[in-house]
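The methods section describes the discrete structure representation at length, but only in general terms. What matters is that the chain and its backbone geometry are given together, residue for residue. Nothing conveys this as quickly as seeing an actual entry. For illustration, here is how one protein appears when written out as sequence plus structure tokens:
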Amino acid sequence: MGQMYGHRVRRRTIAGDNPQTLAETGEFGLIAELTGWLPAGPRTLVGIGDDAAVLATPDGRVVATTDFMLEGRHFRRDTSTARDVGHKAAARSLADVAAMGAVPTALLVALAAPGDLLVSWARELAAGLAAECARVPGASVIGGDTARADSVLLAVTGLGDLAGRPPVLRSGAGPGDVVAMAGPLGHAAAGLALLSAGVRDGSLVTAQRRPAPPYDAGPQAADLGATAMIDISDGLLADLGHIADASGVLIDLSRTALGPSAELTAAASSVLLARTDSCSPAPELIALNWVLAGGEDHSLAATFPPGTALPPRWRIIGTVRQAPGPGVVVDSQPWALAPGWDHFA
């Protein structure tokens, strides 16, 4: 099965432009190459090459999370490079770890792919994974698995270290807390809409292909006394709804604080030009909905006790209130559109 990329085989060098497919190279040949493509990090005591990895855990506790990346659902090979896919796959799990207030330390990556996929694509995927890990000092890919499938599928497990901090849960928000954001909102959703409209470059398209979460903001929020935290993967309203439900509170967001930037509104206008229907909403509403329900930026949202002195990177976007039932509102009113992504809706 290639568990932990653990087969001990003689490594064959695959030239950078060699058009070999995975079927021609073989599972064991690919596994051997992965050892060189994915360098070990300083916390890795036993890395790729054995039945399991061994990772140093100075805190004595391990934060763990798992995410899928499915071809046709989370990316398309005709609009994203393999390196883009690697960056995005790593970012999704690393952001979840950071949202617990932990420092991301390692990834386990299981890859399933068609036999006719080029080895060069797998190499670029590994380069993207390694490059995104490099954004977190000390993080690395420490192992995984390989298999054959009809399309590309990645299952990524992220691990992290709390460094003595208590984990920041979804259930700690209380009335009077402020809600703050670190990182952009709506950029990845705008990028997806632009890609669908045929646009292939620009900063918003890059945000969809390669989200860049502020990983260090997670431990920073924990040190500042954050009472709850989450990364924005499915949409701001949907994800803050998890905090509201777990904490039993109402979160009231400020439309003024969330007002979409000129860049997002311009992108919405561009998307509208590509539409053929005559009943499209205004660009400002489209842009605001990207901010509120777009998801995939993997920025961090957290609640903090009132009066907490927040660094500039954390912008206040709302407040927490006591209410008869939990939920998320905008200027004290429910948002009329879908709050975010639901895989089974």
About this structure: The domain at 178-330 is CATH 3.90.650.10 (Phosphoribosyl-aminoimidazole Synthetase; Chain A, domain 2).
